[in-house]
Amino acid sequence: MSLYHEAASILDETRAKKCSIKSLVYPAKKGKEWKSDPKALFALSTEAAKWSEVLAEVVGRSGMLGVERTLSPTLALVLTHDLFLSKRGIALPASHGLNAAVSKHKARLSAELTKARLRRGCATLDELRIKVNNGGLVASNDPEGQRKLPRHPRWVRINTLKTSLEEQLNWKFAEWQLVSTLREVLQATSSREQIYHVDEHIPNLIAIPSGADITTSVAYQTGALILQDKASCFPAYLLNSQAGEGDVVDACAAPGNKTTHLAAILAESREDDQTGNALGGKIIACEKDVARSETLDKMVKLAGAAEVVMVKAKQDFTKLPPTARVAANVTALLLDPSCSGSGIVGRDEESGITVHLPSTTPEIATVRGKKRKRPSAAAPLKPPAAPPPAEPTTEEGLPPASADDTAEKLAARLANLAAFQLRLLEHAMAFPAARKIVYSTCSVHAEENEHVVIAALRSEVAREMGWRVLRRGEQVVGMREWGLRGLRGAVEEAVGDGREGGVEVDVEELVEACLRCDKHGDDGTMGFFVVGFVRDAGEMLASNGNGGGTTAPPRVESPEDNGGDDEEWKGFAD
């Protein structure tokens, strides 16, 4: 059956590329078409990976791979998972070759599973399941006897377009316990532990334990609750677009988390507006990829944002002229362009999942019927290896970043991305009526962050239009109070002697203006960077008096999209 072969290939590719399972099952761009249902494929691959430490031990000690030469280690893992851990067992007829190959060893496998459970101090399989689901599994050969707890909670944004924080706390989370610190959520020892923490920086955001699942709830399925990393909420909140201020462009909008967050903030300001500008502006959401445009449209409708969001499907932001009629009232832009994705934490990574493979040369007896034999001294027969996956490339021909990249290869990739990001930022700065821009990446590299910011400030369009950074003291309160700021060393390196091309850069001001999130820090976020740009009223009048702005910079093609939202929202992945 294709499900098991495809799940095995997913696990092989995950190990080879050191990438997340979700990115393989649900790629940002159309790639391989799976024969199996993607939802079932993702579930099996993720669960088999999560259990692989135990299952690798069970399969290896059973000696099954020494007998069943048609089974690869990963194929044996996924089949053994369903044999013992799936409610319906192996989804194949009993006479099917794969089912028969594993089921004939069921007694031995069951005995090894019992031993593996007892070695981990679990009296029942359910007790072992809880440990596995919460990352608290202890390997039998772990000298420390422990494993670090997950560092990432599940962040849930209350979608105020459809509900309110108070309503959800009194309904969906009525039986849950409020805790005062995020650390208590991070230390949750069971996925059944119903606790939550209300975030102190982003309004309408709560954290729940990593293993908690709300995706089956009515509130999630109807768009009232949205899974969105805390860091991903920074851009819309920092932009803080208010009613009556004009239109907003979301330049790289899909899949739509930031877009709908923008819409919710705008809608709330309309309710509070006392100036008579209750209708405010609209959000122009641009997405050039066809498939991702469809996802964006679905997300906007599910979140109840269709009245305020105008989805411009198949619209490349760099081809949207700043002087176009649709852009005449654009006063704010949110820019979250393609980046290296080095800050992204996938659900499999944040749960501490590593795919473990069973040994094909067990130290214990191999089962042949009712007799046991020691393996012979001859070299064991190895199962057929899966072919190495083809290496994808970006539109510029650069391979995606990986842990095996050389310094030169990574530097070339970052330089390519930074050039594109700078051009996109310069294009945004050319909109005549714009007075606010927020730029963000899910990257930890200064080349895509502080260095791009400084280059943008030194650009001709920034000087002509009067752009500067949004100072820390001017930021909305939650962002002003965020402690982790820009990298001083990176700023000093890019600034050089402090003045270039007639532009002086204040290092201290720039460091404090930038916000960063640690990928594996105590704040429970992915790696992220965000900064705001503003134009003062006097500068706007001067630039508009000189012809209404500059000509848009030359367009460049976008590299592959590794935006953070793809790792955050799973509503349509299923």
Concise structural overview:
The protein has 574 residues and is α/β, with parallel strands linked by helices. The chain is 36% helix and 12% strand. It has two domains: 2-148 and 367-373; 234-338 and 417-567, 3-Layer(aba) Sandwich (Rossmann fold), CATH 3.40.50.150.
Describe the protein's architecture and organization.
Belongs to the class I-like SAM-binding methyltransferase superfamily. RsmB/NOP family. The protein has 574 residues and is an alpha/beta fold. Helices cover 36% and strands 12% of the residues. The protein has 22 helices and 17 strands. The longest helix is centred in the C-terminal third of the chain and has 23 residues, at 407-429. The chain is elongated and about 75 Å long.
Brief descriptors of the model:
574 residues, alpha/beta, Rossmann fold, 2 domains, eight-stranded mixed β-sheet, 12% strand, elongated, disordered C terminus
Number of strands: 17
CATH superfamily of the largest domain: Vaccinia Virus protein VP39
Characterize the overall form: elongated
Number of domains: 2
Strand content: 5-15%
What is the CATH architecture term of the largest domain?
Answer: 3-Layer(aba) Sandwich
In CATH terms, what is the fold-level topology of the largest domain? Rossmann fold
Q: How many DSSP helices?
A: 22
